[in-house]
Amino acid sequence: MKAFEEIKKLRENVSQIRTLFNVKIPKWEESRKTYDKTGYSFNSDDRFSAFGKIEIWFSSWMGTYGDSGCSDQLRLDKDIFKKHFVSYLNLNRKEIMFAIADSIEKEAKSLKEKAEEEVKSQLSELAELDDVG
Q: What is the phi/psi pair of residue 109, to 5°?
């Protein structure tokens, strides 16, 4: 039942993302006097991290036919890029998080057939009990 368990885990992540942006944030914004301490952004306060730190980088390289070597094609200042990348993520956080939720849900749907096969296999094993004397 690995696929079934994976689907449940994936769907829980989708639910968490959609609930935050569709239910919780609008509720917080409607009642600022009640919810006076709120936040939802990338890299703002790791005490409330939703998924821990992740590593990310951008790669570009080029090599020519007949030469086994490759060379990078882009070199950026890490601090400048990080500042603007995180800024972009936060300006587009809702769209980014919904796109991630859609991608997770697509993965869950792709596992449906595998999960159904696992369930059928389990049911066949249970049916074998009917044949036991």
A: -65, -35
- For every residue of 60-79, DSSP letters joined together read -EE--TT----EES----HH
Nearest CA to 51 out of 5, 97, 8, 86 is that of 97
The answer to whether the beta carbons of residues 102 and 11 sit under 8 Å apart is: no
Q: How confident is the model at residue 15 (pLDDT cuts 50, 70, 90)?
A: very high
Nearest to 104 by CA among 4, 24, 13: 13
Convert the pLDDT of each residue in 40-64 to its tens digit: 999 999 899 999 899 999 899 898 8
- The two most distant CA atoms of the chain are separated, in Å, by 74
